[in-house]
Structure formats: structure tokens, C-alpha cells
Amino acid sequence: MFSKKMGTALALILFFMFTAVLLPTFGTRGGQEHPADGVFQVLIAPFQDGVTRISSFVSTTWTNYFALVETARENKELRREVEFLQLIAHECGETRRQNSRLKNLLGFAQDEGGKVVTALVTAEDPSDTFQAIYINRGSIHGVEPGLAVATPLGVVGRIIDVSPYQSKVLLITDPNFAMDARVARTRARGVLEGAADGPCQFKYVMQQEDVSLGDMVVTSGMDKVFPPGISVGVVSRVRKAEQGMFQGIVVTPFVDFSRLEEVLVLLNSEPPPEQEMP
Q1: Per the database record, which ranges form the Rod shape-determining protein MreC beta-barrel core domain (predicted)?
Q2: Alpha-carbon distance 71 to 58, whole Å?
Q3: Whole-structure pTM value
């Protein structure tokens, strides 16, 4: 059985079909209008207006739909292009930063003179034995145990293990590390040692020596490993005890080891005699 809505829809369809069939039969006959023409046109005018409006609405909606689909497609393509350009910009920015760091390294190498090898940091030592890093240069590049490692900011450490294509660098923050250093301002001399709890200790500096907060510490060159005058760090704590011969001095390295990416191995430094690590 037909519902009321279905009956109404069927009646409308039949009416439009009746209109489409009978409307052409009216009109002029022998140059005269049929008497029913006016009445018929008055009756169907509202329906024709409705059909015209619906047709116009459907046509406009259909056009707008395709326009929205095309706009969405274009927006998707534009987003992809923006993402691609952002990726290129990021890569270019990273390349510029790396080139700047390498330029600084090369400038530092030229200032130091002699032969150097530029290396990339590839990993950190995963063990708790040493505070150390690995670099992508080894014996085939002329790297040997005991050589100094630095950046334009300052001393990094020294080579303790070498394979053909990789080397291990003991950092100056490791408790097993030690080197001869001095205060740049007053030339007070001491031994810089790594400390397990963070910054380095500057030991064996006599009580009468003039050392202040903010003083720069540099290599002395007396250990025959590091050339003299390379930056090490800044004095961040000074304690003069009432008793004892030496001051308690803490030095914070200039190098941020958590952000270290490129280093220089100084091939012209003189490796010390090999000795077992304690």
C-alpha cells in the first residue's frame, strides 16, 4: 500500500508529465490562441516557477559542490607544496649551520697550524666506565692514541682508542682525564682533572696565586699533548682554605658536550707514552 507521502509524490510526477504532454497541444491554431490557454497557463504558472527555482537551486548547488571539491584538491596540493618547501628550508638551514661550524673549525685549525683531521661525533659511550664519545676518523686517517681533540670553543679531550675507521675520545669531564693548564690572566698553573659530579677540578694551584671567578683557563702546553693557549673553560668557583697549600677551584668547560657534533683531531700534537687507564 502507498503511503501518503508516496501518493503526493506520484501525483506531482503525473501532473508534470501531463503538463509536458498537453502544453504543446495548446497554443495558436490558425493564428488564434486556444480559449483554455490563458486558464491553463495561470494554473501551471506557480508550478513552473517552482520547477524553475528547484532547477536553478540544483544547478547552483551542483556547481558549488564541484567548485568546493576543486578548491579542496587545490588546498591539499598547496599544503603538500608548503610542507615540501618547509623541509627544503629546514635542510638548507641545517646545511648553513653545519657549514658555519666547519668554517670555524677550519679557521681554528689554521690558527693552530700543523695538520688536523676534521671528524664527526657518531655516538656517546653507552657504558658507565668513561665519559667518552666516538668519532668517524681512525688509524687510516692518521689518528693515534693520545692525540688532542678540540673545537673552536675549547678542549674536548684526547684519543684513547683507535680502530681503522673510528676512534674513542675521553672527555675532559671524565675523572680519568688530566692535563696541564693555566689561568690566562695571571698565568697561575695547575692540573685540570675531570670530576664525576660535573665541572672540572683545577688542582694544585697554590694559595697565594691570584685566581678569581670568571677567569679563563687555557692549556699550558707543558704536557706535550695540547698546544698552549687553547681555551678550556671559565673559573666558576674559588675556595681558599685556612689550612693547606692549594686552592679549591672549579672550572666549567666552554664546550657543551651534549651539543657536540664536529671536532678536530690535532695530528701535530705529541702523543704521550701509552699507559693503562686506572
Answers
A1: 121-266
A2: 20
A3: 0.60
